[in-house]
Automatic annotation (TrEMBL):
GO cellular component, one term: extracellular region
Protein name per Swiss-Prot or TrEMBL: peptidylglycine monooxygenase
Keywords recorded for this protein, A-Z: Copper, Disulfide bond, Glycoprotein, Metal-binding, Monooxygenase, Oxidoreductase, Signal
Pfam families: Cu2_monoox_C (PF03712), Cu2_monooxygen (PF01082)
Gene3D superfamilies recorded: 2.60.120.230, Copper type II, ascorbate-dependent monooxygenase, N-terminal domain
Names of the cofactor(s): Cu(2+)
Coiled-coil annotated residue ranges, if any: none
Source organism of the structure: Anopheles farauti
Free-text comment on the cofactor: Binds 2 Cu(2+) ions per subunit.
Positions of Cu(2+) binding: H151, H152, H227, H297, H299, M373
The enzyme's E.C. designation: 1.14.17.3
Entry GO MF terms: copper ion binding; peptidylglycine monooxygenase activity
Annotated disulfide bonds: C125-C170, C158-C184, C281-C393, C353-C374
């Protein structure tokens, strides 16, 4: 099942919904559905398309249809509770403004639809389709999760989702009998627009900056991915999860379009060793990007993650400008960059993860907590332009790639500074 978000604006009216009211959403299936919110929980709600089938305000407190949609996996089953909630037409609207903004900002709850994760290290994805007739700008992200349950959450902007199901396994640990797939469809555009871990707080983008979605944007679907770390409280089957993100958005056109580039590596960490995992790429597009935030991510072996912009001076010397560095075991939120100097064509981006292993085995890059990851996210905006087509910058990692490799053609490498606070 695919769900379409419909963003729309109405003039204020008597008995209008509060600032907490969410946006109507409809599926693109022959029998449309919408997303709504009841008692603080996110539900998948059935509704008709004709006015004769539209639920009136008087029935708003009555449940008109309830059923269970079950999704069976090889080991267990989780359920999606489907409830129809009556809302007046004015429920599809924007509150009057948002923090620090001079334009209306809406709040959409993009949450897991009452799933019951049945095994550790499970990755689940759920999609929404953005109304393609208009452009919308995402200006903030408000997480609804705790690290006691979720290892991390990602929001992907996709041309097509990786599955037509309401929820699917989108991790590398899926079994052969489970429906699984990537967050975004094969061959479709794919980009990360937000990431959360370790109880990071909400993120508000700078004034006038937003991620453009819908209409002529390559982002036609938004996919929420949740990596479940701990599932003890779900074992009895009576507790469900609605981890996710409240998306803050506006319909006002913004001249500063946001983008994210993810720097990461493959490779492995030897036993009982300190290892540097390096990545490097060159900006090859005729664009000027303005960095404003960065985020680091590793699993338990990470001690430091740093990111740089590299630019050669007239003498051929590399000038390393620090974008940010951080202990990745602190809250993994987006932090302000150390330098907001613009990044241009022929500049290079570099990132390093310093890993310390006291394990007696090799640790590879992978999806579980027994594996590792080395990620540096750089969030930026372009003014009166489109974001970079390059969304990802990955290297082979150690032992195949290091900054010191001859083919990297780097000099003045800040080995100590990039590995220590």
């Amino acid at each position: 099942m695919q769900v379409r978000i419909v963003f729309c604006v109405h003039e204020p009216r008597a008995a209008a919904v509060s600032s907490e009211q969410q946006l109507n959403s409809e599926t693109i299936m022959p029998s449309p559905r919408r997303l709504s919110r009841s008692d603080g929980r996110f539900h998948m709600a059935a509704s008709g398309t004709s006015s004769s089938n539209t639920l009136s305000r008087n029935s708003a407190n009555h449940i008109t249809k309830r059923f269970l949609q079950t999704m069976s996996y090889s080991v267990a089953v989780w359920t999606l509770l489907v409830v129809a909630l009556a809302l007046p037409p004015s429920a599809c609207g924007l509150p009057e403004g948002g923090p620090g903004a001079d334009y209306p900002v809406g709040r959409f709850p993009f949450l897991m639809p009452k799933v019951v994760p049945y095994k550790p290290e499970l990755y689940l994805c759920t999609p929404v389709k953005v109304d393609y007739t208009k452009s919308y700008y995402i200006v903030g992200f408000e997480p609804n999760a705790t690290m006691a349950t979720a290892h991390h959450m990602l929001l992907y902007g996709c041309g097509q989702p990786g599955s037509e199901s309401a929820v699917w396994n989108c991790g590398e640990m899926a079994g052969g009998s489970e429906e699984s797939g990537s967050p975004c469809g094969s061959g479709a555009s794919s980009q990360i627009i937000y990431a959360w871990a370790r109880d990071a707080p909400k993120l508000e983008l700078p004034e006038g900056v937003g991620f453009k979605v819908g209409k002529d944007s390559p982002i036609q679907y938004i996919v929420l991915q949740v990596h479940y770390a701990h599932i003890d409280k779900f074992k009895d089957g009576t507790t469900y999860d609605d981890s996710g993100i409240f998306i803050h958005y506006t319909t006002k056109p913004l001249s500063k379009q946001a983008g994210v580039i993810l720097l990461g590596t493959a490779g492995y960490i030897p036993p009982m060793a300190t290892e540097h995992m390096d990545t490097l790429c060159e900006i090859q597009e005729e664009k000027v990007i303005h960095p404003f935030a960065y985020r680091t991510h590793t699993h338990s072996l990470g001690r430091m993650v740093s990111g740089y912009r590299i630019r050669k001076d007239g003498a051929g010397a590399d000038q390393w400008t620090l974008l940010g560095k951080r202990d990745p075991l602190t809250p993994q939120m987006f932090y302000p960059v150390e330098s907001r100097d613009p990044i241009r064509k022929s500049d290079r981006l570099a990132a390093r993860c310093t890993m310390e292993s006291n394990r007696t085995r090799i640790t590879k890059i992978g999806a579980t907590n027994e594996d590792e990851m080395c990620n540096f996210y750089l969030m930026y905006y372009v003014e009166n332009d489109e974001p970079l087509q390059m969304k990802y910058c990955f290297s082979n990692g150690p032992p195949l790639f290091r900054w010191s490799n001859r083919e990297a053609e780097l000099n003045h490498i800040p080995d100590y500074e990039s590995s220590h606070l």
